[in-house]
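PROTEIN ENTRY
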Amino acid sequence: QVAIFHRRHTSAALPTGVAEILGDKADLASHYQAFKRFAPDVVIHMAAYTIQDAEGFLNVFCNLTRRSVVISSGDVYLAYGRLRGSEPGPPEAVPLTEESRLRERLSPEGEGYNKTSVEAILGSEPRLPCTKIRYPAVYGPNDQQARFDNYFRRIADGRSAVLMGEVESRFRFSHGYSEDMARAVVLAAVDDRAVGRIYNVAEASTPTNLERLRRIGDALDWNGRIVTVPEEELPEHLRRIPVNSEQHLVMDSRRIRDELGYSEVVGQDDAIQRTYEWWQTSSQTEPSPPVYNTEDAIIARY
């Protein structure tokens, strides 16, 4: 039996029999009686971002359920701080395992997205053992960060070449398709071997950005060229936020594969195609010709 607690700010087709409890996560306590009536065996928190989220969750569910699963992120690792420049020091070794060092400072996102504190709080209460699922960069339908937007747009527009910075082309950042990430959460929720454990979830092998774009192109039957140029030669609209690109974010997901039998349920080509089909129906803006004119001038020089 499954119940979801949400605000109904978005629409979703729920399977028959799924119960709904409507409300806001900032006011969990006022729904205590509804949670108690449902009497959950395990509670999954998909959106614990702040200290207040974590404390409110513990206060309500400590005596209502025997364990929890909480979605965290690979940005808890010290490597993320090194990438973003919020933590001084040399690059951390990758791949990152569940024992890799964590950040000691707030990330550039600040207190409003503080997963390290969330993990510390939820991992400190023995009355509510917590399984922590550390996500990679998640893509798929409804990806509000539109992670592949630049690539998809140029493929859709039939571009014969795509520009990429040389440093960016070598960068490796673990990704995962949304439906596969959901499978990992289900496994953690229904298997008591996950009690109190931490799991990275990510693709088994993390390619470079250049290799990822080629995979996307192959899945979408795009045979164009990828032209790499020094970052300073890129037009302004293609430059990324300043990061230490010597610090890769590659996550090791062997633990959840070995302990819980996790594996991807959607093939890589299918995942890319589904994401692209959603993107085609959701995209609202189109690049102007001058943007491509600027790119074409650089491509011609290389």
About this structure: Residues 268-282 form the longest helix (15 residues).
